Target: NAD(P)-dependent dehydrogenase (Short-subunit alcohol dehydrogenase family)
Amino acid sequence: MMLLDGRVAIVTGAGGGLGRAHALLLARHGARVVVNDLGDGAARVAEDIRAAGGEAIAVTGSVTDAKQVDAMVDAARDAFGTVHILVNNAGILRDASFAKMSVDDFRLVVEVHLMGAVLCTKAVWGLMRDQNYGRIVMTTSSSGLFGNFGQSNYGAAKMALVGLMQTLAIEGAKNNIRVNCLAPTAATAMTDSLLPPPMKALLQPEHVSPGLITLVSKDAPTRAILAGGAGHFERAYVTLTGGAYIGDGEDAAEQVVKRWDAIGDRGVETVPAAGGAQIQQELIAAAKAKNIG
Model:
C-alpha cells in the first residue's frame, strides 16, 4: 500500500543509518524525498531511491546554517512544488560525563539537535500553514526521556525537542500540521562503539522506520512520542499526577516531605492537553481547600 503517494518529504541526516532507512521507506511508500546530509551519503541515498523507481534529490548542507536550510527547502519546492513532511533526524554525539564535558561540546550537540530542528521546522512552517497540511517528526531519545550516563548534552537536547513538539502540535492544529516525536533505538554510526555485536544485529535502523510512516501519514496522530527498536514499539508520555494540596502554612516545606508519596501517587495520573492543565488543577485544589467559589 502506498501510504504517502505524492507527498514530498525532507529527511535531514539521511546520508546513512537511521535517516537513510527513513528516506528509503518513505520513497517505497510513494513519497518524493529530499535527502539531506553533510557529505556524499545524501547523493548515494537519492540515487538508491531513483534506482528503485522512486523520486529523490540530494541536498548537501548543515541544519545549523539558516541559509543552507532555506536553500534546502527552496530546492524541494523547485523539484517537487512543496513540502508536506519534515523529518528532523540530523544529529551528532559528544559523549562524556558532565564533569569531563566541555561547554563547547555541550553547546554543539544542542545546536545540531535542537536548533537544527528549529531552523528546519521554521523554514517549512509558513509553507505548511499556507497549504493547511504538514507532518513534522522530531527525533528524541530515551536518553532525553529517561536519562543516560555520559549524555547530559544529548539528553538535554533530546528532551528539549519533546517540549518543542508539544507546543508546535498545539499551534499547528488549526492548520492540520501534526507534530510528533520518534525515540529510536538503532545501531548507527552514532552508537557504533556503545553496543556489542549481537545487539547491533537486532537493532537495525530499518526496524524503526515503519513507526515513522505512521507519524507522517494522512491519519497521523499529533503530540505523540513513539519509541521503537528491534521491531518493538512503545508509547512514552509526559504525565501529571493528581498531587496533594499542602497549603501555605508555616510547615508547608515539612508537609511536602511528609506527603511526598501522596504527591507522586500515579493512581489519578493524566496526560495534560496543554500546560494550562497544571495551573487549573492547582487552583481547583486550592479553591476547594479555602472554600473559594
